[in-house]
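Weekly puzzle thread! Below is a chain. First person to post its structure in token form gets bragging rights.
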Amino acid sequence: MSDPLFRLVCTPATLTSSPEGWAVEMLQDGAVAVTADAGGLARIDEAARTIGVTAIPVVRTEATPEAQEQTVMAHADGLALVWVAPEFSDAAQAWATKRGPMTLLLGSHGELSAEERRRVERFVAILSGQAA
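Winning reply:
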């Protein structure tokens, strides 16, 4: 795939804690960028191995949570976005609402529940169907 249909922004734990093969399959039409967490480079390395890539983009770290959210929003650019983070500010939620069905926010500290994974799968299936 040359151009992704969506971007996924999450911590490495979202990828490494998913069932085997889930992240790879879900990212067939998408591009991932991770946010740093306490696991540092070792966790980022593990995430890259989980999805079978030799390199993985990292969203730069900002001084404040608000600035971090702005960076993720800018990273989304014009693409649909699946964004996994522990919490979202009112401003981030308003931004997502304004984007409508182009944004899926999931409040999680990393590992997605089975229901959250199904939400991501439905989101990606809808995007893939629209692109076909």
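Puzzle host: Confirmed. Bonus trivia for everyone else. Strands lie at 6-10, 30-35, 58-59, 80-85, 103-107.
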